[in-house]
Amino acid sequence: MIKIRSFTYLILFFVSLPLFSQESQHVVSLIDTEVKAKSLQFKERVNFDKAQTFFRESNWDSTLVYSMKEMSNSKNIELIDYCHYFRGISFQEKKLLDESKKEFGKISQSFRFLFKVKMKLGEIALDQKEFKKALKYFQQVEKASKIASHDMKKSTVIHNIGLCYLHLEKFDKAEKYLFESVKLQEIQKDTLMIISSYMDIANLYYTQYKDAQAIPYFQKAYFLSKKANSFNLKKTAAMNMAVVEENRKNLSLALAYRKEYEIWKDSLNDQNKVWAIADLEKKFAIKQKQKEVDVLAAENKAKIAERNGFILSSVLLFVLFGTGVYFYRQKIKSSKIILAQKNELDQLNATKDKLFSIVSHDLRSSVNALKTSNGKLMENLENKNFTELDVLLHNNSTIANGAYNLLDNLLNWALLQTKQAYFYQESLHLASIVQHVEYNYKPLMLNKNLHYKNNVSATDYVFADMDSLKIMIRNLLDNAIKFSKENGTISIYTRPSSEDFCFLVIEDTGSGMNDSTKEELLKDTVLLSKKKDDEAIGTGLGMQLCKSLIRKNGGKLDIESEENVGTKIIIALQKFKNHG
Amino acid sequence: MDNINVLIIEDTPVESDALVKVLTENNYNVVGVAANYNDALKLFYQNTVDIVIIDVFLDGKPDGITFAETINIVPNGLKPFVFLTSSKDRQIFERAKLTKPFSFLLKPFNELEILYALEMAVEKFYGQANVFHSEDQNTVVSNDSLFIKKNKVLKKVQVEDIVYIEVEDRYCNIITEVEKFVILISLTKIIQLLDATKFCQTHRNYIVNISKIEEIIVNDNLVILKGNHKVTLSDKYKDFVKNFRILR
């Protein structure tokens, strides 16, 4: 007997499960619409919206999370009540009954669906086998449902009350409620509930040992369960039948029922196992995915590091290359400059050598001529050949003059090159300066029978360094005399001056020069040349000195010449501005 | 008209002799030749000197410049001078340049150049540049003398010797107590240059040395000067009479 009792308890426990699930499935509809309305009303409450969405999708964990978030920052009592409700149901579904009870307890008395909360509390109490408490809740709900109609199935409440009585062993009351619920369920044609109700009734009779009354209900439940698709119900019905047949000592039948029970249990287990395996697989897949993601992230990191390294190294290389190119070009440039300077220096050196040779030749020949002339002079003096003396003396004086001019030019050239000379530009009376210079050359010109004319305007004042102006005129005059034939004419005059310049012209009727010589003379380069005429060998130093000095004084040089007709050398000199 | 007094400071006898020769030939009066710094100072302060010719190097030392610097210290005693030098050494020139007014002559030089240098020295010293070579003026006016270039030769006249100046066109007749000569200078210029406290204009054409006035006969428009020179007094310039205390 004790064995059987324990079985019934087991059966009851099994039966209660589908009851709740059914309950929640049906009851949601009204509260569902209400929740939707609320979420529309509180659109800005994102967390609430999410919580209710997950709640309706029976995603309990997410519901718990978002309802908690909503509660933590919401002050609307209505919303908080809803949240507690969501959480209560979620915990109940997750079989955390104590938590669920706590959540339901927190819901305020003004909550619209308070009866549902009571219902749930009742179910929980039932589940925890606190039948009296459960009965109290269910009775409250029943009373409430009498006052106002709800969407809840009255049959369920009644069925639950019946169950409570059954467990409290108040069999007559239990019988009454259970039959009432069966009646209601038959009207509603709720097969599943009918099956469980039948089983409960059967149990009711069976525990009172009214086997004859119990067995038909068991059988009814069993046959109905065959049509239903709930494994749990099928299993329980089969088990019940097995226990019944076993008690009737109909062991072969009992064995058959037991086997059927096993089958249903297995299939239930299978389903559970499939679920579990699927769950495991899912977890495994997620883990795998997570691993993949990790690997990819690591790879990405590595790639980024690699790319950064590459960019950095390429930038470095580029900079290195740039500096290399820069220095290389710099080096090429400097070497080019050095080469050019070297060439220039070589040229200058060659010129210098040539200058030395010509100067030394000129000086030596001059002094040598003087020596021989002096020897002749002494000879003639001994012989008292006085007519010859005069000629020789004049000759000597000419040679000495030439040598002196050469030396003077050399000295001035050196001074100019070393920038040692004092240079001071001032207002100069051009005519006077020309007179000063010509004074020294008059005997020479007279000697060569040259006609000389000086037509320099007395009103011209130039802005120049006196000494350098004298050197210029001296050299040009010297050249003019040197290149003139006997009885030639030399004239110095000024051309009509421009606003800034005075033009001093030194004209001779000498041998003149061709265009190429003229061009060469006007060139900036150092020029040394042997004249065609052997008699008039020059260094070109005088002309060079003239050019340099003219440039230094801010003047210009020009040459007009025709071969065998004569040469005009024109110096443009800066005017003295302050003088009208 | 007097000759110009020149002091020569030169240590080489050959050169100084040549200089003396040239200068005397051109009617300059050489007051002395000093061979060193001390002699130069002595001669300079003992004699009336109009121009000094200074050789930069005396006995190998640039004592010539030292001399110039010495006479430069006393502004009133300063006279025009010309440096002689054979080198264009810049350092020496930079030092010599500080003794303003500064003109120089580079050796070797000819007659024309030394005369030109002397004229330049006078022009520069009295700050009247380009006078002697211009065609409309031949006189440099200093505080106490007129330097006149006559026939390429420089002469001078003491300002205090002038009795009066008669202007004729671009020329001025200078009348002293002993002689009378013509110089080339405009009236406006000479009035500017003459000391206004010593000279005044009595007529469009006359400038009179106030110290030479003997008598002013206002009624006859006459001014009688020393040496019995008579000068016209025009109405326009009568005001100058007020400058005198008139005895009545």
Task: Explain how this protein is built.
Chain A is an alpha+beta fold. Helix content of chain A is 74%, strand content 8%. Chain A has a five-stranded mixed sheet with strand order 2-4-5-7-6. A two-stranded antiparallel ribbon of chain A has the order 1-3. The longest helix of chain A is centred in the middle third of the chain and has 133 residues. The termini of chain A are far apart. Chain B has 248 residues and is an alpha+beta fold. Chain B has two domains: 124 residues, Response regulator (Rossmann fold), CATH 3.40.50.2300; 105 residues, Beta Barrel (OB fold (Dihydrolipoamide Acetyltransferase, E2P)). Helix content of chain B is 26%, strand content 33%. Chain B is built from six helices and 17 strands. In chain B, the strands form four sheets. A five-stranded parallel sheet of chain B has the order 3-2-4-5-6, with helices on both faces. In chain B, strand 4, helix 3 and strand 5 form a beta-alpha-beta unit. The two termini of chain B are 39 Å apart. At the A-B interface, helix 15 of A face helix 4 and helix 5 of B.
> Which quaternary structure do these chains form?
heterodimer
Question: What is the domain tally of chain B?
Answer: 2
Which two protein chains have the largest interface (Cβ within 8 Å of the partner's Cβ), and how many residues from each? A-B, 18 and 17 residues
In the CATH hierarchy, what is the class of the domain at 422-574 in chain A? Alpha Beta
The CATH superfamily of the largest domain in chain B is Response regulator
Beta-strand content bin of chain B = 25-35%
The CATH architecture term of the largest domain in chain B is 3-Layer(aba) Sandwich
CATH topology of the largest domain in chain B: Rossmann fold
The poorly predicted ranges of chain A are 1-28, 531-537
Q: What is the H/E order of chain A? A: HHHHHHHHHHHHHHEHEEHEEHHEE
CATH class of the largest domain in chain B: Alpha Beta
Q: DSSP strand (E) fraction of chain A?
A: 5-15%
Spatial arrangement of strands, main beta sheet of chain B: 3-2-4-5-6
Largest sheet of chain A: 5 strands, mixed
- Main beta sheet of chain B, described? 5 strands, parallel
Radius of gyration of chain B: 21 Å
- Uncertain ranges of chain B: none
**Portion in helices of chain A:** over 70%
Overall average residue pLDDT of chain A = 81
